[in-house]
Amino acid sequence: MIPSMVSLIVLILVLAGPVFPQSREGASGPSLRGLSQLYQDLVERVDPAVVQIITRGYAASEEEDSQLLRTRRGNGSGVVVDKDGYVVTNAHVVGNARRVEVLLPQPAEERLRFRSVINPTGKLLPAKVVGVDRETDIAVLKVEETNLPALPFADSDQLRQGQIVIAFGSPFGLENSVTMGIVSSVARQVRPDDPMIYIQTDAAINPGNSGGPLVDSEGAIAGINTFIVSRSGGNEGIGFAVPSNIAKSVYEQIREHGRVRRGQIGVIAQSITPAMARALKLPQDWGVILADVSPRSAAEAAGLRVKDLVLSFDGKPMENARQFGVNIYRSAGQTVKIEVLRGGRKMEIATAVLERPRDPDRILSLIRGAENEVNELGVLAVDLDERVTPLLPSLRRLGGVVVAGRISDVSPQEGALLPGDVIYEVNHTPVGSLAALRKAIGAMKHGDPVVLHIERGGQLQFQVVEID
Predict the structure, then answer these.
(1) Which CATH superfamily is domain 263-355 in?
(2) What residues form DSSP beta bridges with 267?
(3) Common-topology check for domains 263-355 and 360-465
């Protein structure tokens, strides 16, 4: 017979009784009030470090045929991770904002002066964007304030499915809201072969929660709330957070280098499947096999070979290709030890991890907002000049316009232009600068055929676009 929910709760309380504090009546037995007090204490410790992010930027006017830009205001959440004013949030929260402000909670000593349950508004400070990493959707801000309450990062590798977590943030601008849930999955891969993984949780996350912390039972940052999967646009119990170990690594690299350095060694690694193991007569039906080692790469120089089975990375067992890729990805500029199995013999190979030369975020760091928008094409772009050329592979020409990204609130034609594309001509007219591109596009009328001559992946091609 399945016990009722009430019976189940009573059973849990009886078993967990010793960890609860005494009830206010002084009884030594278990108490829901005691459990509630534990959560209250946790929230009181965490809340002072959770901030609201307020942004101001520009978007195209909604008026027909208008060339004006309208002011757009946005909000999100963040968390103080260093007492000297460093704040971690999501990259998409600050986006291409021209102005970013951080609303700090009212200090505890100030709140005690007021008896009302409505807390007074905190301190609003201008914030500098130290760096943005769009691949992990993490940004680091800095406010000129010291001795701020800050939260430590937890070790997200120690998270377990079913563990209780609490989400903090300002959904829909409702400052410092708190919701509770559990870890639904410790490592959810949203897209196949994507090195990025997320913590999945059923704690209520809504628009505005982005960038706020997902904390564990110790009040440490287990993840940074990032996005939800929803048919309605609101919370449906499927939320995702960037794991703290990834967020911490990005934060530390941005503080040190101003950007994230990503590693590569020049291999293609694949997860071993049972079918692959049978066909290739491998000694195990799981793990990692090297399918390719690029000529003149760091991996080839170190002595790695095709069909090597990767056993460990700096002593850490490798269970699949995604895990192996993530470890390389995080190790730019380091020399690592990769243990492989070759012909039945184990060997440890020291390999240099080089920084990935082409990093779109390094181009995006040159974006200054509206001055880089080409709304007719739905993209952000920069001049191909001496700042940008070193960030790209060898190009066919020396002058043009580089696509840095798409504008999120403009609907570009699917596949028309991609980040990294270089635009050389518009209908036979050379465009050697962003100003020239705007002039050429501006001369077109609605419905005119427009063909861009672009370079993509080292190859020239024509791209037909429609001007809205």
Answers:
(1) PDZ domain (2.30.42.10)
(2) 293
(3) yes
- The CB-side HSE value for 383 (13 A sphere, CA atoms) comes to 10
The CA-atom distances, in angstroms, between 445 and each of 55, 65, 95, 180, 247 are 34, 12, 31, 54, 46
85-115 confidence digits (pLDDT tens): 999 999 989 876 778 999 998 776 666 565 5
Return phi, psi of residue 104, to 5°: -80, 145
Q: Is 210 a catalytic residue?
A: yes
Pair of tokens at residue 125: 């400070």
Dihedral pair phi/psi, residue 435, rounded to 5°: -65, -40
How many angstroms separate the CA atoms of 63 and 65, rounded?
6
Superfamily of domain 360-465: PDZ domain (2.30.42.10)
pTM of this prediction? 0.65
Q: Which of 23, 47, 92, 433 is catalytic?
A: 92
pLDDT in tens, 379-396: 888 999 877 887 777 788
Identified catalytic residue from 133, 137, 216, 383: 137
Domain ranges within the chain, ordered by starting residue: 5-44, 45-261, 263-355, 360-465
- The token duo for 154 is 């937890």
